[in-house]
Amino acid sequence: MKEGPDISHVAALIGDPARANILTALMDGRALTASELAAEAGVGLSTASSHLAKLTDGGLLVPRKQGRHKYFALANRDVASVLEALMGLAASQGGARVRPGPKDQTLRQARVCYNHLAGSRGVQMYEALRSAGAIIETGDDVSLTPKGESFATGFGVDLARLKTSKAPLCRTCLDWSERRNHLAGSLGRALLSEMETRGWLRRDENSRAILFTPSGKVAFDKTF
């Protein structure tokens, strides 16, 4: 007897190489046009449009229209979490790309994962917060402690505003390259945003990589 959700449909959508490239290109939380995603997937515009229609119908992407342009973004954070987990599984099974790019090591160190910090730097931040008692793990759940609230507020995060949102304040996300947790949720996004505001880091224009400034590295290591 077959029970439970049918994973084969979603797996088939993600499993196509061109569609997988489209999805991973959107892992930084941005919305991109069909032309931009066609370039990321390495296919023609008409082929990309067909893939985008399938991903949208399958609930993995959402289209957004702005003026004359139509943009596509990941439907929600759950899609990003599944993709991150699949990347980890592929990495552990030896599923590497045939031609690793020059930014691969940079991506492993620090990258955007749906608007929060991932890579070895993301894991470093998570472990520092956990060791300091700022966050506490209970099974698969993670929550902010009173000590963590004091840290976040002192760091410049508007916790009162975050708590009014329906989005979870703290979530764990299994890092594909480190195979350990990094911090997701609205707090993870807020911390990354504050680090950008402080000039510790910037996002690479052509990839998901996050580039720390020399002074930003020092400040990050001192804080976390």
Q: Can you describe what's shown?
A:
50% of the residues lie in helices and 19% in strands. The protein has eleven helices and eleven strands. The protein is α+β, with helices and mostly antiparallel strands and 224 residues long. It has helices spanning 7-15, 17-25, 34-41, 45-57, 77-92, 104-109, 120-131, 146-155, 159-163, 185-197, 214-223, and strands spanning 32-33, 61-66, 69-74, 111-113, 116-118, 135-138, 141-144, 171-174, 181-184, 201-203, 210-212. A hairpin with a 2-residue loop joins strand 6 and strand 7 (141-144). The radius of gyration is 18 Å and the shape is globular. The longest helix has 16 residues, at 77-92. It starts with 6 loop residues before the first helix and ends with a helix. It folds into two domains: 7-75, Winged helix-like DNA-binding domain superfamily/Winged helix DNA-binding domain (Arc Repressor Mutant, subunit A); 100-223, no CATH class.
List keywords for this structure.
three-stranded antiparallel beta sheet, 2 domains, about 220 residues, Arc Repressor Mutant, subunit A, 11 helices, alpha+beta
Topology:
Layout: H1 7-15, H2 17-25, E1 32-33, H3 34-41, H4 45-57, E2 61-66, E3 69-74, H5 77-92, H6 104-109, E4 111-113, E5 116-118, H7 120-131, E6 135-138, E7 141-144, H8 146-155, H9 159-163, E8 171-174, E9 181-184, H10 185-197, E10 201-203, E11 210-212, H11 214-223
Antiparallel strand pairs: 1-3, 2-3, 4-5, 6-7, 8-9, 10-11
